[in-house]
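Instructor's aside before we start: the two examples that follow are unrelated to each other. I chose them only because their records fit on one page, so don't look for a connection. First example below.
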Amino acid sequence: PHLGTHLGGGSVDGNCLRCPYHSWTFDTEGIVKDIPYCPADKLGGALNQHNSARSYPVREIGGLIFVWYHAEGRDPWYELTMLDEIKDDSHGFRHVSSGDVEDFRMHNMEPSQNTTDNYHFLTTHQWFGQTPDASRKRGWLYVHYETGVRSAILKQKEDDGSPIPPEQIIIDEEIKSVALFGRYAVPVQFVAHTTANARFQGPQVVKYTADNIWFGRMVIVQVFTPAEPFLQRSRIFAYATRGWPKLFAWMLMHGIRLTVEQDREVWEHKVNCRPPKLCAGDPPFNAYNAWLRQFYSEKSIQWGDSRLLGS
C-alpha cells in the first residue's frame, strides 16, 4: 500500500501493524485503520479498501510463524498438524536451540524429493557430516542406513494403522552399522537405542524425529522459505522433552544440519529432466511427482516462464 514500503520492518501496535515509513496502521485483515497525519476531514475517505494491504493466513506454532500463500488466493486446505506435539504442553517439549542455514540456490522441491531417494543415503550420506566426495575411501565416521518411504499415494499407513494425510510424506531411517574411520565397527548397541524418521508436510517444512529409550523424544524442524526463484532461505529449530541434555540436543541438531548440507552440491547443480529418465530399481519418483503436484495450481509459475530467471 501507499508507497510500497516493506511492512516487515514495522511494529506491532495492539492488534495492528504499523508501517515504519509513514506510520500507517493496518489490522489483521490488512485494512488500513489509521493515517496519523491525514486531516480529520479527509481521513474517512482515505480509510478504504484501495489503500489497504493484502493479508495472508498466519499460524504461530512453537514460536515459529508460518504464512500461507496460494497463487490463486485460496484458503489453506491443510494445517501443519505434524507440529501439534511441540505446541501441546502436555508433551513436555521445550525449545533447546535454533540456527540459520546458508541459503540454498535450488528449486524448493529438492529437499522433499530426498524422502523418496533411498539410494542416495548410501552415497551422499555415507560419511557422516563430511563433504561428499566420490573418490573418498576413508573418513571420520562411516554410516550405513536402511530407509523406506511412506505416503498415501503409495497406499501406506501411519505406525498406528491410520491413513497418512495426503499432504505428508515420510522417510523411515534405520542405522544398520557404523564404523570409525570406515574400518572399526562400532557395536550396534550404541545406535540401536534411537529410532528416527523425517516427515514433510508440503515441500517446505520438514520435521526430523528421534526417539531415544533413555532421553525421550527430540523434534527438529527445518523450514525452506522461497526468497526468489531458485533461492531458498532456511532455518532449523530443535525441541526436546525434558530428559534430553541440552548439549546432546544441540549436537543432534548440528548433525542434522551437516547431513542436509551434504546435499547442497547436488541440489544446487541439477537440471529439470522432462520426462525423467528412469530405470528398473529406481525409487518411486513418479509417485513423488504426483504428490508434489497437489501444491501447485493453474496459476503457478510454469517451467520456461521468464519470471523464473529472477532479478
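Example two begins here.
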Amino acid sequence: KVFGGGIGPGIQSKLQSMSKDTDALPNISAAEVKERVKETENSGKPLPTFARTTKEAMMVDVFQEFAGKGKNVIERWIEHAYTNDDKKQPPMGTKYNEDRIVTCTGGDGDIFCELLQPCHGGVIEAQPAGNNLNYQVRPNKHLIHYGISAILNMQVLARRNKAKFDKSGESHVGKRVAKVFDVESDDGDNIFRGSVTEEIVVEEKTLYRITYDDGDDEDVTAESLFDMLELYKQHGEKKKKKSPEAKSKNGKKKVGRPKKNAEGKPKEKAEGKPKENAD
C-alpha cells in the first residue's frame, strides 16, 4: 500500500543553496562531505553541535535536519502501517515487511542511512538515551532498478492471470467484488462493494452485471471483473461504522454514485427489466 510521501532537496542541494544565496558562505563539494563523514567514522568523533568552522557549521546543520526529519517520517510510517487494530493478513503472494526495514537510496543514501542509525551513526552528536530503534535502516543504491523490475514482473503476471481468467469458463455469479469510485464519502472509503448477479451474452461477448450494496448496478467486461475481484481480495468487506447515531449527526449529505454501463457512461433508470446490451 502506498501512503504518499514528501519532496524536498537533498544534502548537496541544501549546501549549494546556502553557498549561492549568500555572500560569504563557501561551496562544499560532495567529495568534501563524504570525506568529513568518513573522518567521523574513523576517529569516533562526531561533528559537534556547536561547530567552530564555517563548513562544519553548514554540514552539521543540514545533517541534524535530515536526521530529525527522517526519524519523524519513519515513526509516522510505523504508526500508519503497523497499527495494533489491523490484524488483517496481506494477500497471498504479497511480501510483508515484517522486520520494518527502511531503505535509503540516491546519491546521499549512505550518509542518510548513517544519520538514521542509533546515535546518528556517530556522524553528529546525539543524546545517548532513547536510541533503541524498532526498525532497521539499510542503504541500497539500486532501489529504482528493483522497483522497475518488480513492476514489470507484476504486469506480466497480471496479463497471464487475466488470460487464464478469460479462458476458465467458470461462472462468477455470486462472487463479491470491489471498485473505486471518485466520489465523496462520509467515512473516507470510496471503495464500493457488490456482487456478480448475472452473466449476459451480447453479440457473443459476455458481460457481468454487478449489483452494488447500495443498490446501484452496472455491466462490466471480463477484464474489468478480474480487476474488481482482485481489489476485493485486497480490501475485503467495508469496515464497520462506529455508530449510526454518530453518522447521522455529522450533517453531511450523502453523495451517490451515478449508475454506469459497461463503457463507463452514466445510464438512466428505466421501468421494468433493463436492456441487455453493452450500451
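The CA atoms of residues 110 and 139 lie 6 Å apart.
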